[in-house]
């Protein structure tokens, strides 16, 4: 597992992960740990200071807030639509605080909240982060407007998401795997999400009145050994098993189609190979206020 955050926080997260049975929260935490390992520079260069008020929307189990709270005394709020994830984040918070790993745990809190109607005052936060949440939304433009509303004038906003066209592997995935991946894509689309949202983020954010400062592509590439490929395969298999009931219920595949593809993919040997994944990161700023539908510059 890559080192997340710093070794002490990492130890708490690792032991928490070991205590979780296979479940959504466990899979999300594993996913977030991997994702976070490519985010160290991003978060450092966001320049969060002790006097910032930070919001992390769609925080999951709270990795970003824990990282920030271990380095600064900024006020940090993490929120997520899932009550279950927020319960876990609060459990991890107790463990981190017990081990005295946070600079001031009273400045960190978690709430259950939907990005499209955030329970926070307007013009409140000075830094807002939204990592891999837009790809799940059916109302991305409303979400962007909420980010604009809760941000104070001068606030900086970081939004990152996937765009499937940026995922490259070699050797090519098998037909069976393509079939299964298509089911996953259809499921996300069927729920109103969008796995090609990366390229659209800046349009949503500027449409809400935020100014686009810059856009980066965060790339991760590696040559995975057979052992790493097996670990990846096991992780994907657990995700697919968990998603199967929803895919069948929504009639995105028949039982026979799903099981045939799954069993055939399971029997495939793994081969060491290349992986490249990239995510789009948009850095925006609130430099104008919205007033009765118009944008007024307050500079
Ligand atoms: C892929 S996870 C990313 C978690 C975290 N941001 C990270 O990067 O580690 C997507 C998260 O978005 C949350 N989410 C999805 N729809 C949401 C919504 N409408 N409002 C708030 N959170 C939402 C999910 O519950 C989940 O925790």
Structural commentary:
It is a single chain. This protein is an alpha/beta fold and 299 residues long. The chain has ten helices and ten strands. The strands form two sheets. Strands 1, 2, 3, 4, 5, 6, 7 and 8 form an eight-stranded mixed sheet that branches. It has a two-stranded antiparallel sheet with strand order 9-10. Strand 1, helix 4 and strand 2 form a beta-alpha-beta unit. Helix 7 (175-190) crosses helix 9 (226-249), helix 7 (175-190) crosses helix 10 (255-267) and helix 9 runs antiparallel to helix 10. It is globular and about 55 Å long. The model has no long low-confidence stretch (mean pLDDT 93). It binds S-adenosylmethionine.
Question: What would a concise description of this structure say?
Answer:
Helices cover 43% and strands 24% of the residues. With 299 residues, the chain is of the alpha/beta class.
Beta strands, count: 10
Q: Average pLDDT across residues?
A: 93
Main sheet makeup = 8 strands, mixed
Bound molecules: S-adenosylmethionine
SS strand fraction? 15-25%
Low-confidence stretches: none
Which percent range fits the helix content?
40-55%
> Please, how many helices?
10
Radius of gyration over C-alpha positions, nearest whole angstrom:
20 Å
Structural class: alpha/beta
Q: What best-fitting shape do the alpha-carbon axes yield?
A: globular
What is the CA–CA distance across the termini? Answer: 47 Å
* H/E topology pattern: HHHEHEHEEHEEHHEHHEEE
């Amino acid at each position: 597992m890559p080192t997340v955050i710093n070794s002490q926080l990492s130890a708490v997260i690792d032991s928490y992960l070991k205590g979780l049975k296979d479940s959504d929260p466990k899979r999300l935490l594993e996913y977030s740990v991997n994702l976070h390992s490519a985010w160290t520079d991003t978060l450092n260069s966001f320049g969060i200071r002790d006097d910032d008020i930070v919001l992390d929307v769609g925080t999951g189990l709270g990795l970003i807030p824990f990282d920030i709270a271990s380095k600064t005394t900024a006020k940090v709020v993490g929120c997520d639509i899932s009550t279950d994830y927020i319960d876990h984040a609060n459990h991890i918070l107790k463990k981190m605080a017990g081990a005295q790993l946070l600079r001031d745990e009273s400045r960190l809190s978690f709430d259950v909240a939907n990005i499209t109607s955030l329970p926070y005052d307007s013009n409140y936060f000075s830094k807002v982060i939204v990592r891999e949440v837009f790809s799940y939304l059916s109302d991305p433009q409303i979400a962007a407007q909420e980010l604009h509303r809760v941000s104070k004038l001068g606030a900086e906003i970081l939004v990152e998401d996937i765009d499937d066209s940026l995922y490259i592997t070699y050797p090519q995935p098998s037909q069976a795997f393509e079939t299964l991946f298509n089911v996953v894509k259809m499921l996300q689309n069927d729920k109103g999400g969008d796995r090609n949202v990366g390229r659209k983020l800046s349009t949503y954010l500027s449409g809400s009145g935020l100014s686009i400062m810059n856009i980066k592509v965060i790339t991760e590439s590696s040559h995975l050994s057979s052992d790493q490929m097996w670990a990846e395969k096991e992780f994907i298999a657990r995700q697919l098993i968990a998603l199967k009931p929803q895919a069948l219920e929504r009639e995105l595949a028949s039982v026979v189609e799903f099981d045939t593809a799954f069993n055939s993919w399971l029997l495939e040997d793994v081969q060491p190979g290349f992986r490249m994944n990239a995510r789009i990161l948009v850095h925006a700023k609130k430099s104008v206020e919205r007033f009765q539908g118009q944008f007024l510059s307050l500079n």
